[in-house]
Design a protein that fits this description.
Number of domains: 1
Helix content: 10-25%
Distance between the termini: 16 Å
Radius of gyration: 23 Å
Strand content: 25-35%
Shape: globular
Largest sheet: 6 strands, antiparallel
Structural class: alpha+beta
Number of strands: 14
Order of helices and strands: HEEEEEHEEEEEEEEEH
Number of helices: 3
Strand order of the largest sheet: 3-4-7-12-9-10
């Protein structure tokens, strides 16, 4: 009976430890997925955007420049991650997404006429992140081009194709960009953004960078998946049983 109770206590302890580890990666460094909406004159957005597998809760930022701490992840759980950003203003305008489910995300945006910076802090240190940046501007903004870069962005810079303001679907390289970046030893990831001179429509010769929102997700392989921790817990449980039996056989 004593041996049975001992094994049960070991099992309970190992399972509890495995559950703690299972929960840990979701909140490590802030969140597994963080969604940002630059919002003015539109409702809060929730759900998916370009990637149908990435959705959930979004953080609403309602100023041209500022800092927001304790961002929530896609599950609505508060994290330690913060964001600081600069821009010239926020604006909302009708475009091709006006009657689409993603209207709240894609018709409101942060804009700038010069070089600006967006910085995430308190992420997982020395890790790679996948980044989605949405750039669908105003209906009269034909031809606007967004350039995103920085020393922490793999490949240096990413530039969108001239924008079609009446596109009604997500078009990679046109109204959203996908890129990867790496945090430094302090868990900081900084992005710069700027505009390239545009052509066409009322905006001929006008230079403006527009960002509707951002999705930030730690790349697969940066930290072990939750299932890995479960397997570690099961392995530890089996080892504990084996050691207990071995010690009993020597008595």
């Amino acid at each position: 009976m004593t041996f049975f109770i001992g094994r049960r206590k070991i099992a309970e302890a190992v399972i509890a430890f495995a559950l703690v580890l299972l929960i840990g990666p979701v909140q490590a460094g802030g969140a597994e997925l963080i969604n940002i909406q630059f919002q003015t004159g539109v409702p809060d957005f929730s759900g998916t955007a370009a990637n149908p597998l990435l959705g959930g809760m979004w953080n609403q930022l309602t100023a041209a420049s500022g800092t927001s701490s304790s961002l929530v992840n896609s599950a609505g759980v508060q994290t330690n991650t913060s964001i600081s950003w600069t821009g010239d203003g926020l604006f909302s305008s009708g475009n091709g997404f006006s009657k689409q489910p993603e209207s709240a995300l894609m018709t409101s945006y942060l804009y700038s006429h010069g070089l600006q910076t967006i910085t995430f802090s308190k992420l997982q240190e020395n890790s790679t992140y996948n980044i989605y940046i949405y750039t669908q501007g105003a209906g009269d903004g034909k031809g606007r081009i967004l350039t995103v870069g920085g020393t922490q962005i793999n490949g240096g810079t990413e530039t969108s194709k001239p924008m079609d303001p009446w596109a009604t679907t997500f078009i990679s390289g046109q109204n959203y960009l996908t890129l990867t970046g790496a945090t430094n030893s302090n868990g900081v990831l900084s992005i710069t953004y700027s505009a390239i001179g545009t052509s066409g429509g009322r905006e001929t010769g006008f230079s403006e960078a527009d960002i509707n929102g951002i999705q930030l997700m730690q790349a697969s392989g940066s930290v072990p998946e939750p299932s890995t921790y479960v397997l570690m817990g099961i392995g530890g449980l089996l080892c504990a049983f084996k050691l207990k039996r071995f010690s009993k056989s020597e008595c």
